[in-house]
Amino acid sequence: MTKKDFAKALFEKGIFVSKAESERKVDAILTEIEEVLKSGDELNFIGWGKFEVVQKAERMGRNPKTGEEIKIEAKKTVKFKAGKTLTDKMN
Predict the structure, then answer these.
(1) How many structural domains are present in the chain?
(2) pTM for the complete prediction?
């Protein structure tokens, strides 16, 4: 499902009055999630899941094409951990 499909599904369920409004609201929510994570905070939806930024250390890897060793730079990435309620609904 794409972001556009998700916004359309919210519109079809009657959550928003138009497709355009639905797309704007989904964009606004995602932008706010990005801002929270950029600021270094974690975002926790109790029972549903938690988003947090984690630091990955620098490491050595291999170029799969040539087999040559390469250095992979340290970077920040987003980690999501599903909460109990969401996990229970999936099983």
Answers:
(1) 2
(2) 0.77
Task: Pick the closest to residue 22 from 2, 32, 41, 7 (CA basis).
Answer: 7
Could you tell me if 45 and 86 lie in one domain?
A: yes
| Residues 78 and 67 occupy one common structural domain | yes
- The residue range of the domain holding 62 is 41-90
Task: Return d(Cα 4, Cα 18) in angstroms, integer.
Answer: 13
What is the C-alpha to C-alpha distance for residues 9 and 87, in angstroms, rounded to an integer? 22
Tens digits of per-residue pLDDT, 6-39? Answer: 999 999 999 999 999 999 999 999 999 999 999 9
Q: How many residues does the chain have?
A: 91
> pLDDT by residue (tens digit) across 37-90?
999 999 999 999 999 999 999 999 999 999 999 999 999 999 999 999 999 999
52-26-35 Cα angle (round to 5): 35
Contact 51, 80 (CB under 8 A): yes
